[in-house]
Amino acid sequence: MEKNNRTQPNPPRAQRFDIQLPLCYRASGETAWHDGRTQNISHTGLLFWVEQLMEVHTPVEISFEMPVEIGGESGAGVKCHGEIVRTVLPATNDAQPALAARILEYQFIRGHRRSCAA
Prior knowledge:
By secondary structure, the chain is mainly β. 3% of the residues lie in helices and 43% in strands.
């Protein structure tokens, strides 16, 4: 019997990679960047530790540099536009909160260095 994928209630999640990278993020349209650090990344989204939480459904810009092991060369940057889909409150007082973002579009930029400048 052939399986019909259209009737699957929940498609499989994209493979996630536990990679800790520094990143910059801001709400779309803002000029000030905030520092963060990835917890995991997939081609559809990322979970990252943050200094400042954002509301769910907030459009967001994210910039980070891919490691050589993945990007194939030093300085391969990624600029993403996405949407916050979940907030994760810290479990303890000394832990950081996190945001989960869905990636709506992204662009690889060769020779790019992650910059939090406006």
